[in-house]
Recover the amino acids of this structure.
């Protein structure tokens, strides 16, 4: 049987293998890079859904074409790879962190258990296979995110001091009232926004916590320290996904990453994945909240969330009705404030 590593080397040239299935390579779109090249900028993985990933954004088209060639070659016929401990990794299997092999049969069973039928759907202008193929891609994405994690924090380093200094609008030193009103301008004027404490929801008397932006502009954040990254239907009193009105932000945060590390995640989303970032909120605690545009569809959203969770981001915040800190409110004597705001 063919060795998948040799196939990858025929397509990409010399590869500095870090594991039996993953290594650093020269980017197939290196000629398009607009900044300096580093040895660890591009990595190839041959297990799961074989993938080439480069941290540069300018080479995305060339890398996508190389990925199509790599997958076509490796999927042309089954392969097996003998690991140092004697175990066998087969095409479609995923070598997880810690050396655990996730067999392709398990992924197929999970796809069947979720009730998804094999077929084709459109996502971001590209056809993709649902069911097993998408499940395999998600699992490969999680494993790849784990492999890329150390390089991500280095390549996209964005420390707190640079975040403050680099804000398109200097907002960090504004007073509480100005902070809050500035944040409100991110919302469409017709939006109904929830502001309250965690349990200010679910009963008719909580209807006052759901108000149009124009009313909050006059009241201020006095009714609570929290908001949501989504607007709600007018007249509702429950902060639930069923009452969402459609306008949403994707809020990213972590309770385990330092400010500098979550800054690198924000930079990765902006510079590499090209998601628009609207603001960053200092929660007056140990975390920063980044407010981003939402992915274009559920498929891309699931893929993004899978990687972000591996990077150390809190998956609870991915729920659009989840409470998050609102700028302009006070927390134990410290101001929850905007520290970065788009133009």
């Amino acid at each position: 049987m063919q060795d998948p590593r040799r196939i990858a080397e025929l397509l990409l040239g010399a590869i500095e293998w870090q594991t039996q299935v993953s290594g650093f390579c020269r980017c197939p779109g290196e000629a398009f890079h607009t900044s300096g090249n580093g040895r660890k900028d591009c990595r190839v993985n041959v297990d799961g859904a074989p993938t080439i990933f480069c941290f540069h954004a300018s080479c995305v088209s060339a890398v996508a074409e190389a990925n199509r060639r790599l997958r076509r070659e490796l999927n042309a016929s089954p392969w097996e790879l003998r690991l140092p401990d004697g175990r066998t990794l087969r095409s479609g299997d995923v070598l997880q962190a810690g050396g655990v092999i996730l067999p392709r049969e398990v992924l197929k069973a999970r796809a069947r258990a979720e009730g998804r039928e094999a077929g084709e759907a459109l996502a971001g202008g590209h056809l993709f296979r649902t069911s097993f193929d998408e499940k395999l891609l998600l699992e490969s994405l999680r494993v790849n995110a784990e492999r890329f994690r150390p390089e991500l924090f280095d390549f996209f380093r964005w420390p707190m001091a640079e975040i403050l200094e680099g804000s398109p609008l200097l907002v960090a030193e504004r007073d509480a009232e100005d902070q809050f009103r500035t944040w409100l301008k991110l919302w469409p004027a017709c939006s109904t926004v929830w502001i309250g404490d965690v349990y200010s929801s679910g009963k008719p008397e909580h209807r006052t916590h759901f108000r149009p932006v124009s009313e909050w502009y006059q009241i201020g954040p006095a009714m609570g320290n929290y908001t949501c990254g989504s607007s709600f239907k007018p007249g509702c009193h429950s902060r639930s996904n069923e009452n969402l009105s459609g306008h949403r932000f994707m809020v990213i945060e972590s309770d385990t990453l330092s400010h500098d590390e979550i800054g690198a995640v924000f930079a990765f989303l902006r510079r590499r994945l090209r998601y628009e970032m609207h603001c960053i909120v200092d929660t007056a605690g140990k975390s920063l909240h980044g407010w981003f545009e939402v992915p274009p569809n559920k498929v891309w959203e699931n893929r993004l969330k899978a990687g972000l969770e591996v990077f150390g981001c809190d998956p609870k915040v991915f729920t659009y009705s989840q409470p998050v800190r609102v700028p302009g409110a006070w927390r134990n004597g410290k101001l929850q404030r905007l520290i970065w705001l788009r133009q």
